[in-house]
Write a structure and sequence with these properties.
This protein has 306 residues and is of the alpha/beta class. 46% of the residues lie in helices and 15% in strands. The chain has a single domain (6-305), classed as Aldolase class I (TIM Barrel), CATH 3.20.20.70. The protein is globular.
Length: 306
């Protein structure tokens, strides 16, 4: 793990690359190109892992100049057991070698020694295997400060970051997150707590290593949370395949176009399967389609926020 405040490193990369793009590495075997899958069509765990490793490496190479980070959703790897987690570890390693930050989308939550063990596994900061250690992880703050503090402390010790779920991009999030609590939506209460918990961990950029996951599919709420949480970096899902574009995410950023990074998974890694890239590239040039989609997202976001 690197030294220094994670938010400072993240904002420095955004400024250096003029990019706010995070690419989600969520490989689905049934959607991978034929030249990558090969003998893995039988979906044996080892074959699936090898296909995912080959695919992720190609995607990482294609997006490295356009993105600041990748986000690995662990569920797509866990489904193939130990072999799948081998592919997860390989994705982290390959992305780091390409100069990209890595967010482990693990959505962990627990307290005391259990949370400490989760944090050691995914953030480091304690003796153990480094296989799954990412630069930052996602956590569920529903257990309160007791469930977040061990992750933040481990991140601080290892130069890592944490993104707590505050207002997620899925439609049914309103069933829970919009419930009124003390006269305001629950997500605002959680956002205020995340801002408070992160205050001791601010870096020179003004942002804390404790960030928030806030979905692009709720642009008004996104902008309101930015005002409520001025020192919290946002990880913004929901761009592309879930319907949000550059205009919807503008509210996540500060006046300098900093403070947030935006994730796209399907819209980039399967770009050759959807317009306009399908017409321009097709399956035979799928790597070029992936690179083009990442470049377009980078340009659109930067122009919308500067």
């Amino acid at each position: 793990m690197a030294e220094g405040n994670f938010a400072d490193r993240l904002m420095a990369e955004v400024a250096r690359k003029r990019s706010q793009v995070v690419v989600g590495l969520d490989p689905r075997l049934e959607r991978l190109p034929a030249d990558v899958v090969g003998a893995a069509r039988a979906e044996t765990p080892r074959g699936a892992a090898e296909a995912m490793i080959r695919f992720n490496r190609a995607v990482i190479e294609a997006v490295a100049e356009h993105a600041v980070a990748v986000k690995c959703q662990v569920a797509f790897y866990e489904r193939y057991g130990c072999e799948g987690m081998r592919a997860y570890a390989a994705a982290i390693c390959d992305a780091r070698e390409a100069g990209l930050l890595v967010v482990g989308d693990v959505k962990r939550s627990d307290i005391a020694s259990t949370a400490e063990a989760y944090a050691a596994a995914h953030l480091g900061g304690a003796p153990g295997a480094p296989d799954f250690v990412a630069d930052a992880v996602t956590v569920n703050p529903y257990l309160g400060a007791d469930g977040v503090r061990p992750f933040v402390e481990a991140a601080a010790a290892a130069g890592g970051g944490v993104f707590a779920l505050v207002k997620t991009s899925n439609p049914s999030s309103v069933d829970v997150q919009d419930a009124v609590c003390d006269g305001r939506p629950l997500y605002e209460r959680v956002g205020s707590l995340v801002e408070q918990w992160g205050e001791p961990y601010r870096g020179e950029s003004g942002y804390s290593l404790l960030g928030a996951v806030v979905g692009a599919t709720f642009p008004e709420e996104l902008a309101a949370l930015r005002r409520l949480m001025p020192h919290t970096p946002f990880l913004v899902p929901g761009f592309g395949a879930q319907g949000a574009g550059a205009e919807e995410v503008r509210g996540a950023f500060d006046a300098d176009g900093l403070g947030a990074v935006v994730n796209s998974s399907r819209g980039i890694i399967y770009a050759w399967q959807q317009p306009p890239y399908r017409e321009h590239y097709g399956g035979g040039r799928w790597r070029e389609a992936v690179a083009a989609a990442a470049a377009d997202m980078r340009r659109d976001l930067w122009e919308a926020t500067h």
